[in-house]
Design brief:
By secondary structure, the protein is mainly alpha-helical. The protein has two domains: 2-105, Rna Polymerase Sigma Factor, Chain: A (Orthogonal Bundle); 127-187, no CATH class. It has helices at 2-21, 29-46, 52-66, 70-73, 81-123, 127-150, 152-162, 167-177, 182-187. The protein is rod-shaped. The mean pLDDT is 82.
């Protein structure tokens, strides 16, 4: 019985092959009506994305590929026609799955890069913020110079505070440096 089916499949494939070679693209409809339900279920089961348009795209491309006659004319009758065509369809599904995976990876890389750029952008000070910071430093420096004229020790302590020193570090430096004059303050810059 299997030999009979394979002979029938081979005869059908030869018939469709000849019709395709003569330009009759509609001859593929016989295979379409015979195997479409099976191929549709097979594709839905094997494709990573279960979205309707994904598996329909794979099936549409597959049937269009079959109309070029190369696949049908390559059938030698070593297995059933359905098995032969399923192997070809499975290769298209594997290609589609690779593309889906690649697209997901590309989307993830792009999303990650966009998030990195957003983080960098948010962490960068705006030109206005930089200007305000420079103006604040100028005002603080001028205030320290004025304070140094009346109370050099307080000016020195304030400068150490703006440099980010802890009280303990300020005390150690206070005992090491001794007196501070306003000329030293003018040369020092606040960070």
């Amino acid at each position: 019985m299997q030999i009979q089916t394979e002979n029938n499949d081979f005869a059908l494939a030869r018939k469709i092959c000849n019709q395709l070679l003569s330009g009759n693209r509609e001859s593929i409809l016989e295979l379409y009506h015979r195997y479409q339900a099976f191929f549709s279920a097979f594709t839905r089961q094997r494709l990573y994305e279960s979205k309707v348009y994904e598996y329909e795209n794979v099936l549409t491309d597959y049937w269009i590929e079959l109309t070029n006659s190369k696949a049908i004319c390559g059938y030698e009758g070593k297995s059933s026609l359905r098995t032969y065509l399923t192997v070809i369809l499975n290769r298209r599904i594997i290609d589609a799955n690779r593309k889906i995976r690649s697209d997901k990876n590309s989307k993830k890389l792009l999303t990650d890069r966009i998030n990195e750029l957003n983080d960098e952008f948010q962490n960068q000070p705006s030109p206005e913020d930089e200007f305000i910071k420079k103006e604040q430093h100028k005002l603080i420096h001028e205030a320290l110079l004025i304070l140094a004229e009346t109370s050099p020790r307080d000016a020195k302590l304030m400068l150490m505070h703006f440099e980010g020193l802890t009280y303990e570090e300020m005390a150690k430096r206070e005992f090491q440096d001794g007196r501070v004059d306003s000329k030293k303050l003018k040369k020092r810059q606040i960070r």
